[in-house]
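Researcher: Next sequence.
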Amino acid sequence: MSRAIRTIVAALVVVVTALMSAVGVAEASTGPVRLQQLAEAQTNLLLSQYHGPPQTASPAMCNMGQDPEGVEGVFLLPTLSFGSGDLTFTCRVETGSVLVDLGGAVASEDARGDTWETASGEVLLFTRANLERICDDVLRFFPTAAPATVDGNAVSGTQVSTPAFTARVIPPSGQFWQDSVDLGHPGRLAASYCGWKAEVPLRQGRHVIRVDLTDVAGAPTHFTYNITVTT
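Model: Next structure:
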């Protein structure tokens, strides 16, 4: 299994190994264009704020790397990066909705010659041109969204994979940064997101969103977002 698949929910190598014999081939779904664009923005935020292990979520706090007005009127909540564990976030936002990650992965380009084998047996290099196809295939390992609630009510997600986009990475991110250097464009790395997202509308006031990422993380992992909407 290639190291170039970077998960947002845990080590995908473990997830894929566990699911290989149990999960059939799913129909690839890219989801609504708006949700693709928001997923791209949230993934870019994750990568630009990732400082390497043991950072479990990226950004580490709600107010890092993003204006309270969010992106296109949507606030991008911190997502699970490359670890596990319970975390609580305190967020003050000025948007009518927030974007919640419900489990997924990031395929990123590299110069190591890593490959991904699709369900049909096609072997793909982790080049920018192949990232979207790889992510479409990876979706079969995320057949359902992680359970989540907003103020006690269930949240439903949408399966998404994005076209390749250019993300910003920083030296503390380790392999991400090294890949960008090896490819000749330090600080910039092509990536594609594949997984589950939910745009959750919120009225002015206080709200609590809870996401149970235990199954996909392979260890007890619960994120709690205490959100205050100010306008």
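Model: The first strand starts at residue 5 and ends at 7. The two ends are 46 Å apart (CA to CA).
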